[in-house]
Predict the 3D structure of the following.
Amino acid sequence: MKVLVAGASVAIGIRLVPQLVDHGHEVTGTCRSPDKTERLHGLGAEPIVLDVLDPDAVRKAAVDAKPEAIVHQATALADLSDFKHFDRSFAQTNRLRTMGTDALLAAAREAGVRRFVAQSYANHRYAREGGPVKTEDDPLDPTPVPAMRETEAAMIYLDRAVTAAGGIALRCGNSTAIPTTGWSRPCAHGSSPSSAMAAGSGRSFTSMTPPPRPCSRSSTTVPASTTSWTTSPPPSTCGCQSSRRWSEPSRLNASPACSPG
């Protein structure tokens, strides 16, 4: 299968690419700067320097690469430190989750892409009610703290835009990508990423479980689940429907159910 990974040089993307290649897939990986192309090439991908916020460039990249699947991993999370001004720190990532998602979905429609998988997020988004295990049927927090409202709106936008188009929004658990060792720092209190994180058809899905001790996950956890949902969705989990292939034109033309902000 031909797979276009947008954001192939970021924390998850750089680990996802070699797993896709190892599974025999032909990978085209995008990055923002030319100095990252050599590393992507070394991992087995065909690198493309691309600004995901440039719709024309994204359309051309998709049409030229002719992928059967697109994986949206584009973020700008490197060197984050100012969490007091959360929305300001995540402003670029929020644009990638809204305008970038729109550009990639439009390119997917034009290129006739069969499957679309996007990186979303789970932790701290749910209403403070019920037990520690959350699924897509549990409500999100209706009143996020003021400093995080733009970021939450961007994540909701991605979830709804992608799933309304028939794609998959993978709500990942809390993890810290360490360049040399993978995910090895303690996760947020009270939750750890599930190795079975996935999304049902037209829906997003998350499974969160309380860790008995600070969690330590290998660098394959999130990329592995992304790989399987990009190329061969596993059986349904926790009652969720298995994902269908990207094959319904009427859904590809669907409009997102909400707007950012």
About this structure: Residues 2-252 form a domain with the Rossmann fold fold (CATH 3.40.50.720). The CA atoms of residues 119 and 160 lie 12 Å apart. The longest helix spans residues 91-111. DSSP finds eight helices and eleven strands in the chain.
